Amino acid sequence: MASSVVKVAIIGGTGLSSFSGLDWCDSHRPETPFGSPSAGVAEGKYRGNTVLFLPRHGGEHSIAPHKINYRANIAALKALGVSHILAVNAVGGLAPDMGPHALVVPDQIIDYSSGRENSFFDGVGGPLDHIDFTDPYDVDARQGLLLAAQKCGIESVDGGVYGCTQGPRLETAAEIRRFRQDGCDLVGMTGMPEACLAREVGIKYASLCLVVNWGAGLTEEKITLDDIHRVMASGMDQVKRVLLQSIEQ
Ligand code: HPA
């Protein structure tokens, strides 16, 4: 992504509240018309490129998916001059090739969340506008993640439909069956409205999803947090390698 107009921010999700191994030299917490972002935005350098990092759930991982101030987060990154966001999402897997440990770069979204402030264009103190959201993720940023995974020798899945639920509870088996019928391959709680807010302010946005469990009812075993954390602990290292490679290339 090396270019003078590129400024990349990583939004870390569950399992990635901090990003060790990178030289973080500064921190910003811009106030926005929508309030404060989830945490200070760390700024560092990687191979000559400026990188920003914002943990979506806060530095202590204490903000639930439905309580995240998505508008403040995106407005803060925009104010800091960010051109690209690489978002990390821990998700449940629904498609047969998207079981625990899979890394997926989704290409579509179905939004089942509700009651979230999901637009800057709400007609209050600003213009009313309608973005094109046919392809919710930036095509080049997606390709960058896939190429980075390939260069790292890490398997990844190209494409998939991310279903965004309200959370914070996991789903019922019937909900997962319905999502599958709708065409969802993954289920998570934080993909929206983050993606559409980024589009509204012209930030190129792609997501790297780590599957940490099968969707509810797809296996005999109950979903346990212990199992989820075990998958996260082993998978986040790969996620970080792919992100850094993507920023470098
Ligand atoms: N459902 C919704 N969100 C999730 C899941 C899930 O099974 N796993 C991780 N995030």
TrEMBL record:
Pathway terms, separated by semicolons: Purine metabolism; purine nucleoside salvage
PROSITE patterns referenced in this protein's UniProt entry, alphabetically: PNP_MTAP_2
GO cellular component, one term: cytosol
Pfam families to which the protein is assigned, alphabetical: PNP_UDP_1
Catalytic activity: a purine D-ribonucleoside + phosphate = a purine nucleobase + alpha-D-ribose 1-phosphate
Site positions (Important for substrate specificity): E171, L225
TM ranges: none
One GO MF term attached to the UniProt entry: S-methyl-5-thioadenosine phosphorylase activity
Domain Nucleoside phosphorylase: 7-247
InterPro entries in UniProt: MTAP, Nucleoside_phosphorylase_d, Nucleoside_phosphorylase_sf, Purine_phosphorylase-2_CS
Residues the record lists as binding substrate: M189
GO annotation terms (biological process): L-methionine salvage from methylthioadenosine; purine ribonucleoside salvage
Binding residues annotated for phosphate, in chain numbering: T14, R56, H57, T190
Keywords carried by this UniProt record: Glycosyltransferase, Purine salvage, Transferase
Protein EC: 2.4.2.1
Keyword 4Fe-4S set for record: no
Assembly with partners or alone: Homohexamer. Dimer of a homotrimer.
Record's function text: Purine nucleoside phosphorylase involved in purine salvage.
HAMAP family: MTAP
NCBIfam families for this protein: MTAP, PRK09136.1
Additional free-text comment from the UniProt record: Although this enzyme belongs to the family of MTA phosphorylases based on sequence homology, it lacks several conserved amino acids in the substrate binding pocket that confer specificity towards MTA.
Family: Belongs to the PNP/MTAP phosphorylase family. MTAP subfamily.
Listed name of the protein: Purine nucleoside phosphorylase
Species of origin: Pseudomaricurvus hydrocarbonicus
